[in-house]
Structures are given as structure tokens and as C-alpha cells.
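Handout, page 2. Input:
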Amino acid sequence: MKTIITIGRQFGSNGHLVGQKLADHYGIKCYDKELISQVASNSGFCQEMIEQHDERPTNSFLYNLVMDTYSFGYNASSFVDMPISQKVFLVQFDTIKKVAEEGPCVFIGRCADSALSERDDVINLFIHADERYRIKEIMHRYPDITSEQKARDFMNKKDKQRQSYYNYYSSHKWGRSDTYDASINTGLLGVDGTVKLIIQLIEDYENR
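Output:
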């Protein structure tokens, strides 16, 4: 295994579980919430602050401003003047790139595909599922959500949040098939079937 995997996911599609099982299969690390502690270590920000802005959209500045700042570099004075959300994004962006240098791993969300766009050893995946499957998974995962309507509302809110964040910080569109190398339906294949398909994809990719 010599490939880095990034996973975008609809809420309730079990994208995290797919990523974790892939990581377990290959004996590599899976970074989801775990990335927050890495960002905290690299930035000096407390974990609570990073969690507050983690995969959260912001309306305080435009995507082009962020990427121009990143592309041309930023000095200490410009960094101080940035909104907190921008600081968190930039440090997270850098952290993803640094972690990727350490070897194959799995990244869940957080625009990792954009952060690693210049690498040629990355497969970008999107995990999705039908609404019925996701509502069932959400109600199982969150016992306090006791109705399908509440699960649907929560699902739509989280998807909108992820979509807004991704579309703000990436030049691509969240969930669109041409953004990713493959888009897989866990509602059709189940988690294990999805993992099996991805393993085959990785093997074919590395042996091409």
C-alpha cells in the first residue's frame, strides 16, 4: 500500500467507518477527528477552538482570498489579522500536507483532496447513500433522535454544512461525481462491500 486516500461523505453514509476499515486493513492511520489534535499541536490553538470551526462554513471572506493568501504565503503579521476560521483552515491545510508526507493514510473530509491536489499518489473518494439508509444509520447512532423527520432535518443540516465548507475552500463542488475519482453508494453495497470495492480499486490503481 503506497496510496493516500481522501474520503468526502454524506452524513449518515458511514464514510468514517469505511475509512477506518480501510485503514485497519492496510495497517495505516485514519484521520478524522484525530486531525484536530494534530492541528492543535502544530498551531498552538486549543482543541476546543479548532472543533468550533471544524468543517464549518464561514461568510467572513471569499475562497479566492483564502487561496491567494495560501498560494503566495503568509507572514506573521498577515496571519494575525486573519479571521479565526481562516487561520484554522490554513493550519489544517498545512497539517494535512505534512501528515501526508509521512506515508499512506486515510483522510476523512476537511478538503483533504484539495490540500493534496498536487500529489500523484492520492485517490479521492466520495461516499454516499440513499436517504432511507442514512436516516436509519443516524437514528441508530444518535438514540436521542427519535423520529425520521428529526433525523432527516439533522442529516440535511450536516450535509449543507459540509457542502458549504467544501465549496468555499475548494475549487470543486462537494458531492459532484467529476470532483472525485470514484463515488460509491454504501446503501447499495453496505460498508464491507464498499471497503472491498475500494481495496480492489487501490490494487488496480497501484498495479496499473
